[in-house]
Amino acid sequence: IFNGTLTLHNNSSSTIRLADNSAGNQFNGNIELNSTSGGGIYFGNNVNGTSTLAAGRTIAVGSSGFLTGDVRLIRFTQVGPTPQTLNLGGIAILTLGPTSTFDGDIDFRSPQLYLNGTTFNRTSYLEKKGAVDNYSNGGNTFVGSATLVDSGSGYLAMAQFSPDVFQSDLTATNTGSNVIYLANNVPGNAFNGNITFNSTLGSQGIYIGNNGPASATLGNGASLLTGGLGFSSGELRLKRLTQIGSSAQTLTLTGTALLRIGPVTTFNGDVNFRSPQIALDGAVYNGVTYIKKT
Question: With 0-12 CB in 10 A as exposed, 13-18 as middle and 19+ as buried, what is 288?
């Protein structure tokens, strides 16, 4: 039990491990993380380890920065609505979950990012900004609105082994040079709010349901939207996606973008899709359909 501020510095060639293998660990003050060498700082790394961050407290990067190694927040519960901010630099890694929960708004940015089974109960902003490709295990629940950003040269892949559920709106923004993969590899993913897509600056785009086992639903009343940055680069792939309900869908892509629909995709509402490039690869359109290659 830590009742005051906990400041951690890793300047070694190994790791610092807290709440490692026992349940009920408590952090009742703020936590400051610093790592300039070594493997990073782990919370709850072994299966029996659990911990809580008390209401009104924060976990944040300290004055020396977090430049190398892994921040692992595993079986870690933040209590209360206090916002949390982490901005890792260098070649650092942020791993969230399994079995972690954040009750406050979060703004987490890291060169590498793994989302491996976390519940985000309020607004979440998660940005991958580095060069290494990252597959997330999935099993995440986003209760509040979510923003996923890839601003690096490595890809960000979601739902490799377990489905993700977005209960509110999702904004996916790719300003990097690779791909954001959503609902990538397993069935049962759910997008219950609107999905807003942005893809610019030479990115390769945003793919839903890219691999064969995957499937996802777009919730009743939810819409696919193009965001304020536009979708001018790369592909928007809508594969193995089923729209629930009959809300009309409108997408306008620009620049050199490609809209690829199917296989195994179904739209139950009217659609109005326009894109410089279009590939129709196996979809069912149950409403009035307007598709234009511009």
Answer: exposed
